[in-house]
Specification:
By secondary structure, the chain is an all-alpha fold. It folds into two domains: about 15-245, no CATH class; about 255-325, no CATH class. The chain has helices spanning about 15-40, 50-75, 80-105, 115-125, 135-145, 180-195, 200-205, 215-220, 225-245, 255-265, 270-290, 290-295, 300-320. α1 (about 15-40) packs antiparallel against α2 (about 50-75), α2 crosses α6 and α11 crosses α13. Mean pLDDT is about 85; it is low at about 1-5 and about 320-330. Pfam families: HGSNAT_cat (PF07786). Keywords: Membrane, Transmembrane, Transmembrane helix. This is DUF1624 domain-containing protein.
């Protein structure tokens, strides 16, 4: 406690800045891959690829864990309200900028509750847990993480309440970080920070001096919010002109779709002839009915699922019986 009676300014742990720097670098890598995939500059759809989806969830979980850690480090001795509201306002403003920017660029899949929206709300929700025992905070966090594994309801498919979680089919948006399960990661981070600070390990961590090779990560970690806001416009400013400058003989969206479809079909154990015929039928239906905007949505939606099911039904009906079982249309 300071002489003025206000909470003392907490010490800064370099390891947190390093970890935050690692997380922001990973996020930039993921978004770069997402942009390349969206503009079909790489032969993979990272929104459905298992490895990339795991990578995305690790990044998101890491960021939210660090949100919990940072809240305890900054306000565990007493909430520093001016700094809390200043950072909250910056994050909220950033979230609004993301919504406006994505609505302009991707009106059908704009971000209405992404990572910044979640951090702003979760920071408010987490304040009461600064005074609760760590074991209780961890227990509540576990509930948030586990409940979505056992409960879902079609009502939560509605974008107006999808930010809560529990959907059966996620709404069409480029980024969605719902309360369930992701607030649980913030609470786990808070519990972990409280336990570490109450142990002898805290002194060792506080005294740790990073090697010079890690200094760039510290800088990135301390400017993570600004980097998050500007990195996508920079990436799009580089990648979009490259996508438009592709030679006339570059693979078209039809080529890319067929290639991806055939690869998925073969991975399901079907023959080359079957996959070629089925994917040819699927892309013919997409072109005929102008379904590209639906099929290429980055996240699953009821409209997309219905279109895929209809294509599968039509193409299955046209397949020769000797070609085997038809795979999904994507």
């Amino acid at each position: 406690m300071s002489l003025t009676g206000a909470p003392a300014k907490p010490p800064r742990f370099a390891i947190v800045d390093v970890l935050r720097g690692v997380a922001i670098v990973a996020m930039v890598i993921y978004h770069c891959a997402w942009d390349l995939s969206y503009f079909q500059l790489i032969p993979i759809d990272i929104t459905v690829d298992t490895g990339w989806r795991i990578f995305q969830h690790l990044i998101l979980g890491g960021f939210l864990l660090l949100v919990g850690l940072s809240l305890v480090l900054a306000h565990g001795r007493g909430i520093l309200w001016p700094s809390f509201w200043r950072r909250f306002a910056m994050i909220a403003a950033g979230a609004a900028a993301v919504t406006i920017g994505t609505y302009i660029l991707f009106p059908e899949t704009f971000v209405f509750f992404g990572i910044l929206h979640a951090i702003a709300l979760f920071s408010l929700m987490a304040l009461p847990f600064l005074r609760l025992p760590p074991w209780l905070t961890a227990l509540v966090g576990a509930v948030f993480l586990i409940v979505p594994l056992f409960f879902s309801n079609v009502a939560f498919n509605d974008p107006r309440i999808a930010w809560i979680g529990f959907w059966e089919v996620p709404p069409a948006t480029n980024d969605l970080v719902p309360i369930f399960p992701w607030f649980g990661m913030v609470l786990v981070g808070m519990a972990l920070a409280r336990l570490v600070l109450a142990s002898p390990l805290a002194t060792t961590i506080a005294a740790w001096k990073p090697a010079s090779i890690l200094r760039p990560l510290i800088v990135l970690g301390r400017w993570s919010l600004i980097i998050y806001l500007v990195h996508q416009p920079i990436l799009l400013g580089i990648i979009y002109p490259i996508a438009n400058a592709r030679p006339a003989d570059a693979p078209t969206r039809v080529d890319s779709f067929v290639s991806s479809c055939v690869a998925t079909c073969k991975a399901n154990g079907n023959t080359d002839d079957h996959c070629t015929a089925y994917c040819g039928c699927a892309v013919e239906r997409i072109v005929r009915d102008d379904l590209w905007s639906v099929i290429e949505q980055p996240t699953s939606s009821p409209e997309q699922n219905a279109a895929i099911a209809d294509i599968a039904r039509q193409c299955t009906a046209t397949m020769p019986s000797n070609l085997g079982v038809t795979p999904p249309a994507q």
